[in-house]
Q: What sequence folds into this?
């Protein structure tokens, strides 16, 4: 079953964040724990890790802002 | 009176201290991971870097001794015996949590292991710990009460009122200040005019110990001295344990207020790998044993996280219950 | 009590009135005699310190020992926190905060902790404390020593608030408050401490949450509490002269208040006047008025009226202070206006 990649809430007041950059490409095989995307929120950048291992399917666009909890892609 | 402590933990105690540290470290790492992968949404006050203090204090306490801690207190509680499944279910807001999901991480409570109150208000652990100590004094049952708090809390009114009362009533209370040098975003020297918080004990006529809270042997000695003093009816102790937090005030906090080189220097002095290496080098434990603790911790946490995420949210019928109990 | 009193005939002794202060002292003594877990703490509460600034706890430390009745430093947060902690460990502390205005110094302990620990712990812990405090204007104590703040605490889920108006209720409510598994703020009306009231049976309880219909009537319901009950009684003369039949209810418990009794009365009379010494805006009267108009809108013959102190701090100067406190005249005038006016 595919694991959803969710936009996390990091930091007290954050309700949305910018998916600044994908650090892996659509279709890549990724391993759990490897840096997956850069999240910008509250003027700070956080590297977010892959929650599982498998094939990455990208659903959200780099450079766009999404609310916390949005499904950005899947790993299956 | 400044104290020097001379108690050294035996081999078995040292190994147990490390086992607890391994659990604490693994739990913090998993907590940050579930947040960054979006699995849980909650404010998280990371204690990574501060594992030695509760490990060294808790081996000197029994299940019957009382703990009152604060929002950066999950390490204190795990070391005291808070069960992992109920911890994770509570921070995930589930009905199987310690508080049926109604308290959350800042109000974890587990009286079976003496975890009586966790407070989200800086400094409020101390007046309540005094009361637990007073109960112990009244009943003569020998229990001690530990109130944990940070350096920032040593400037709030409740600290001063509490130390004063504990001292004049000779209460069996241990005021355990985990001084990580930063009160929220403000560096110690900008908020506190005394060089050492432990010096404040003298102002209240009570015992004070300043100790390297990242040194397991020294921390054990300080904790044991304070616990023995309390049990002997000789009154409270203020322990100022120096340490450092690796992840800012609340997780996600970018630490922009902290100099990067200063932070890197402190992170490099992380007591966890140092103690791990020392135990092996001194022949007190094998690599296999310690790696076993770390693996056990991961496995237990896996189980706890799965339990939590499988557990149901409290029903709406829970919204307005537990406000009052049944009248006698 | 002096030896001379012991020689009185039983019938006369039974009729001898008792002040609220004596009734409170007796309630505390009886509770402590029956239950070893009842303990008292606060500023000056022990006998070497005169047994309380007005003597409510006099004799208790001598009788029960200085461990169970303990004078504290001037540290309101520490006092309430100590009570909370001891209650978590199985004791029933009765903490004194000398004046209701000083509950403000302990608000974190009262509102953020005592009131909330049962809920936040998911029912694992509870805080069976009583916080005794006194207040009331009339002794020229000025703006920081005489406020009635019951509405603040009634507005906090998890704490009960009681305010007796006479000796029997003071005794019965104190016994119930000590028995109660949750925090109870027990407000004593200082100017009324030394007023004598009829005696009562030792050991009796007044249930928390139950009001008392003290005078039956048919034209208007007057709800009040604390020393204002005396003023409401005094207003009966003028009301009688004006041909107004008033039903007077002593609320006794502010939170949770006895909606059933009040609504039954107003359903009968069709009119309500709430009287309290606290300032009118945002007071207990506002809450009662809101519920009554919600539940009895079609049955009301007049708007709900409120009599209370004007919206300013308690003044020092005697004529101002006297004018500040609601009086029997103001109560009678307001009630008559509601009954006789066109609405």
A:
């Amino acid at each position: 079953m595919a694991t959803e990649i969710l936009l996390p809430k990091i930091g007290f007041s954050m309700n949305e964040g910018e998916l600044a950059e994908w650090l892996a490409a659509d279709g890549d095989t990724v391993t759990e724990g490897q840096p997956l995307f850069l999240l910008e929120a509250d003027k700070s950048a956080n590297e977010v890790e892959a929650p599982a291992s498998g094939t990455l399917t990208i659903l959200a666009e780099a450079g766009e802002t999404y609310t916390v909890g949005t499904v950005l892609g899947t790993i299956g | 009176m400044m104290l020097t402590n001379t108690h050294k933990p035996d081999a078995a105690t040292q190994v147990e201290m490390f086992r607890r540290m391994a659990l604490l470290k693994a739990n913090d790492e998993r907590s940050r991971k579930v947040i960054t992968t979006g699995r849980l949404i909650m404010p998280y006050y990371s204690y990574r870097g501060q594992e030695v203090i509760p490990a060294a204090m808790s081996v000197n306490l029994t299940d019957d001794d009382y703990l009152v801690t604060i929002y950066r207190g999950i390490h204190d509680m795990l070391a005291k015996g808070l069960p992992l499944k109920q911890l994770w279910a509570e921070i995930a807001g589930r009905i199987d949590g310690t508080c049926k999901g109604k308290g959350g991480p800042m109000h974890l409570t587990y009286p079976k292991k003496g975890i009586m109150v966790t407070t989200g208000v800086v400094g409020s652990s101390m007046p309540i710990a005094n009361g637990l100590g007073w109960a112990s004094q009244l009943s003569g049952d020998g229990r001690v009460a530990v109130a944990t708090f940070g350096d920032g809390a040593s400037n709030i009114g409740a600290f001063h009122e509490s130390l004063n009362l504990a001292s004049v009533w000779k209460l069996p209370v241990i005021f355990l200040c985990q001084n990580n040098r930063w009160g929220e975003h403000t560096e110690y020297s900008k908020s506190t005019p005394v060089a050492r918080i432990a010096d404040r004990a003298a102002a209240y006529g009570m015992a004070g110990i300043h100790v390297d809270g990242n040194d397991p042997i020294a921390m054990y000695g300080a904790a044991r001295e304070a616990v023995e003093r309390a049990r002997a009816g000789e009154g409270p102790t203020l322990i100022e344990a120096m340490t450092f937090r690796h992840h800012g005030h609340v997780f996600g906090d970018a630490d922009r207020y902290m100099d990067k080189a200063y932070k890197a220097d402190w992170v490099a002095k992380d007591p966890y790998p140092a103690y791990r290496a020392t135990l092996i080098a001194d022949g007190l434990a094998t690599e296999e044993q310690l790696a076993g603790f770390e693996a056990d911790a991961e496995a237990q946490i896996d189980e706890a996280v799965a339990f939590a995420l499988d557990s149901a949210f409290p029903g709406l019928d829970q919204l307005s219950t537990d406000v009052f109990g049944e009248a006698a | 009590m002096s030896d001379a009193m012991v020689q009185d005939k039983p019938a006369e002794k039974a009729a001898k009135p008792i002040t609220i202060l004596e009734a409170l002292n007796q309630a505390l003594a009886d509770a402590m005699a029956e239950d070893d877990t009842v303990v008292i703490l606060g500023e000056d509460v022990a006998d070497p310190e005169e047994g309380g600034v007005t003597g409510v706890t006099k004799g208790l430390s001598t009788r029960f020992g200085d461990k169970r009745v303990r004078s504290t430093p001037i540290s309101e947060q520490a006092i309430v926190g100590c009570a909370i902690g001891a209650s978590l460990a199985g004791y029933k502390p009765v903490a004194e905060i000398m004046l209701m205005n000083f509950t403000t110094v302990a608000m974190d302990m009262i509102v953020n902790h005592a009131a909330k620990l049962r809920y936040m712990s998911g029912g694992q812990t509870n805080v069976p404390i009583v916080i005794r405090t006194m207040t009331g204007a009339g002794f020229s104590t000025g703006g920081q020593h005489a406020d009635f703040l019951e509405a603040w605490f009634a507005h906090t889920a998890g704490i009960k608030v009681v305010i007796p108006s006479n000796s029997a209720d003071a005794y019965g409510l104190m016994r119930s408050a000590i028995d109660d598994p949750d925090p109870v703020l027990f407000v004593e009306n200082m100017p009324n401490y030394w007023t004598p009231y009829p005696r009562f049976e030792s050991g009796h309880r007044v249930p928390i949450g139950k009001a008392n219909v003290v005078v039956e009537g048919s034209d208007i319901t007057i709800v009040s509490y604390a020393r204002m009950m005396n003023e409401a009684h005094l207003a009966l003369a003028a009301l009688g002269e004006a041909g107004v039949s008033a039903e007077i209810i002593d609320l006794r418990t502010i939170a949770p208040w006895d909606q059933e009794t009040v609504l039954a009365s107003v359903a009968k009379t069709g009119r309500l006047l709430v009287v309290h010494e606290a300032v009118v805006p945002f007071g207990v009267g506002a809450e009662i008025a809101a519920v009554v108009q919600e539940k009895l809108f079609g049955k009301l013959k007049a708007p709900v009226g409120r009599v209370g102190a004007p919206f300013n701090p308690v003044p020092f100067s005697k004529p101002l202070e006297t004018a500040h406190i609601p009086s029997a005249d103001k109560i009678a005038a307001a009630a008559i206006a509601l009954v006789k006016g066109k609405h």
Summary: Chain B has one domain: 11-247+291-307.
